[in-house]
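Weekly modeling sync, notes
Attendees: S.R. (lead), two postdocs, one rotation student

Agenda item 3: backlog of single-chain predictions. S.R. asked that every request posted to the team notebook include the full sequence so nobody has to chase files. The rotation student volunteered to paste the first one in as an example of the format we agreed on. Action items at the bottom.

Example entry:
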Amino acid sequence: MPRVPSSTASALAPVVVRDLSVSFPDREVLRDVDLVAQPGRRLGLVGENGAGKSTLLRAVAGRLPARAAVRGTVESPSGLVLLGQEPPFPDAATVDEVLASALRPLHEAVAAVETLAARLDDERTADRYALALEHATAHDAWDADRRARLAAERLGLGSVAGHRRVGSLSGGERTRLALAAVMTTRPTALLLDEPTNHLDDDATSVLTAFLRDLPGPVLLASHDRVLLDDVCTDLVDLDPTASTAGAPGEGGTSVRRFGGGWSAYVEHRLAERRRWEETWIAQTEEVARLRAAAQVGTGAVAHGRGPRDNDKFVHAFKGARVEQTVARRRRDAERRLAVALREQVPKPPRPLTFAGLAPSGGGGGGVVRVRALAVQGRLRLDGLDVEAGEHLLVTGSNGAGKSTLLGVLAGRLTPTSGEVAVRARRVAELPQDVVLPDPRLSVQATYARGTRHLPPASVPPLADLGLLHPRDHARPAGALSVGQRRRLGLALVVAAAPDLLLLDEPTNHLSLALAGELEEALESSGGTVLVASHDRWLRRRWTGREVRLQSWATPDDRPGRRVPED
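Predicted structure, as returned to the notebook:
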């Protein structure tokens, strides 16, 4: 695919994508995409899993694999940088070497300006000097050393020794190192793929401020709705179709652009859903009317009166004309019915719901009671009580024991000591990693196996849940992507209609639209719910009680406590 450099070597310029199509041997990902990102605009890429967000970023950066077939053109500034989900540094490089590598071209840019400035009496040098000055200014090269120190400090890298190898760093440390290098470079255009993965709230705030201040165009793909809301000037929806069209991948990529961040986008989607429902209802009523009209008989031509003695004479003289009128009306109704059926939008999928049952033993009372709980090396909790119908958010840093607590309540993990009482007839858990009983089974068979303990009349058909496309129902469950396996696990939880629902990072690996639908379903659910989540959007909007597990670290599990805080 031709990549066209901008008209200047490094000055601020737009990213322009024209008629971009990308396909791999087994599928087409993008088709005929047109997109422009002007300097100062920060575009968030959203859409269902597999819609092509990462593929679009790699295409703009010229980093697609050789097996990809590409058509179209991309025009971008020469100083464009792509920060993918995996930082690009070799494991053997040290932290100091990574930061020095980011500074080197900026030091060279300053030296080039100074060298050419000393030769400005030569007219042939003037143009080269102007370009070199433009390049150094666009990257703010004179401030690079201070910016590098400040970035490392703000991102919490001060405690990471400079001689540490990249391969020895944690995922969060590698991500912060990559961001420090990007902030040092100050690129003329920046592409980011899930940049907040492995970042805590403080590091994410630093990234947010940097992106807002960056003068060049920014394209980012992220599941972090707070980041999309705080940073983006526009959202680009890469869902393959509008809400009224067919399955993903059919009919090319519909690129729809919306002004504003995630909140504005959600309002638009809600309005779009209302219009879809209203259109479907109106079209369904029209189809019913036309079907009735297509069944019209001769009585409809002269209706409203009873038979008369001379009707046989009327038929002799006018019967043929009545039959012709009936036939014409039928043909007209049938023609319009065919058009209406062809143009009818699909029925909107029903919203996700959690139909909770009443707690065991009837109405209210405690559903969860925990006292002096300990799981060796993973969790200690003095006490926790959860009432029937209560919605509880469990938060805390990585390793605080959130997943362990949910596993104990689900009966999946055995505590080392303590008292745990769960008073619920039916408990359902959505763990972070959905375990398949037999990956060879089809999706439909896996769903049937997972719901066989439930009353058959209460189990909704998998297709009715709208969580997995019908074309995937016959596939082996082991062939599903991480996001699709997550949807299958969610389908089993919904089908269980539990009175105690345990959700561990429920928005992980879900499309943003489905994550929002899940949160709405939780908010309206009358059942008892415990949710463990790092999701900033979910946490900001949580209206129930919150318990924060405090991290503790003791070398050999010496007494240390994690006490819940409201």
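Discussion: group reviewed the output briefly. The CA atoms of residues 448 and 456 lie 10 Å apart.
Action items: rotation student to repeat for the remaining queue; S.R. to check formatting next week.
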